[in-house]
Amino acid sequence: MRFGRIYDILKSKRGTSFPLVVAVTLALVIVFCGVTESIRLMIVAQGVRDAVQSAVISTINDNYDNVYHGEREGYSGAYQPSASNFQESLDYGDIYGRLDHLLGLRQENGYHVKDAGDDMEFRLSGLSVDLDNMPLAPASPDNSKGLQADAAIKLEVPVSFGGKSLPPMVINLRVKAKYIPIF
Q: Where are its TM segments located (predicted)?
């Protein structure tokens, strides 16, 4: 019965529906602002994740020249011959340097910061990279492990709503890359 009362107010020609229309419009504007801010945060996080993934893939590909070509055995790892044995040879590269170039970041107080005009758009910190080499002579040559890189980085994006600054969105992005010989 309550919806019938609202419907009657909206159909009335007396002007009593004006406050209700204003309230509904303001509520829709607030919801729209919240949705657009959350979409902005998702777009920034996805873009940074893609850039980190690209930098990690470049790093794993830089290890190509160190890969012992053991395709006939069905595996490959980052090893170089040394006298009568093989030595592990991993190159961690400069992932922060690649990110600075890809995203246009600058360094500030231990952070890598992206500016949007006078404001900070986001900042990165705490990069950790783990290169996991395949054993030289694995028991199972199914190439399931391979030469892998796991990277994690902390992303902080400032959040504002209604002209007020809220606590920043802080997430840890994780990416993986694996070297697979093609030929």
A: 20-43
